[in-house]
Amino acid sequence: MVVGYERPRPPRVPLSVRAGRLLDEIGALIAFSAKTLRLVFQRPFQTREFIQQTDFIASVSVLPAMLVSIPFGAVIALQLGNLTRQLGAESFTGAASALATIREASPIVTALLLAGAAGTAICADLGSRTIREEIDALEVLGISTIQRLVVPRVLGCVVVAMLLNGLVSVVGVVGGYVFNVLVQDGSPGAFVTSFRTIATMQDLILGEVKAAIFGVLTALVACYRGLTVKGGPRAVGDAVNQSVVIAFALLFAVNFVITSVYLQFAGTH
């Protein structure tokens, strides 16, 4: 290495070019998603692959979801308990914490865990197959990679997301109840009564719908980034990181839209 020599920096890409690439990526992802959703209803359905992927996704997501949901419910109960105490409405602590958990916290926790655990594994698996040219081999044989590999993973994520959301909701509400009663000296009867008075089945349905949509988004992003990898093993790692970032951004944006629409049409009880 020559002393004093500085490697020239790569030329800066103009903003217009980067914006064009971003729009191309968005369009490709939308087209990929549309094709995947269309093939969901076409035969043959890969039952064995679907069962294997569902089992794998559940195995890497259930335990972390349970461990995260307990402190999550406790933190929500702590914050809302202090707020309701300041407002003189301690009897509504149960309803407020439970609704916050079921409507918002549970679907978000479920989605983040799926994107961080299952999504990364899916992207790494498909990315490794792509750089080994296994995907090209399937296409040469006339096998649809989307129907063979993507659809089972998307449906598996949806099933696990809905089940995990129910589990996280129950564990989170119970954790908030225990924390409110034992730590904040709340009334068990007031917690349960306020929850039963204000909460409705619509809140649970909203959480399940969110979880299903988040599961679809997480799986689609992970599969898309895995199947579009170009390069070697380092490119696979970059694709995994990108899939997590993209999934997180989409999840929060879609969550805002769904919640806004729900509150607009269903009201706040």
From TrEMBL:
Origin: domain of life: Bacteria
An annotated GO cellular component: ATP-binding cassette (ABC) transporter complex
A Pfam family assignment: MlaE
Keyword Transcription annotated: no
Entry annotated with the keyword Transmembrane: yes
GO molecular function: phospholipid transporter activity
Transmembrane stretches, start-end: 56-78, 154-179, 204-224, 244-265
Keywords annotated in UniProt: Membrane, Transmembrane, Transmembrane helix
PANTHER family per UniProt: ABC TRANSPORTER PERMEASE PROTEIN-RELATED, PROTEIN TRIGALACTOSYLDIACYLGLYCEROL 1, CHLOROPLASTIC
Name under which the protein is recorded: ABC transporter permease
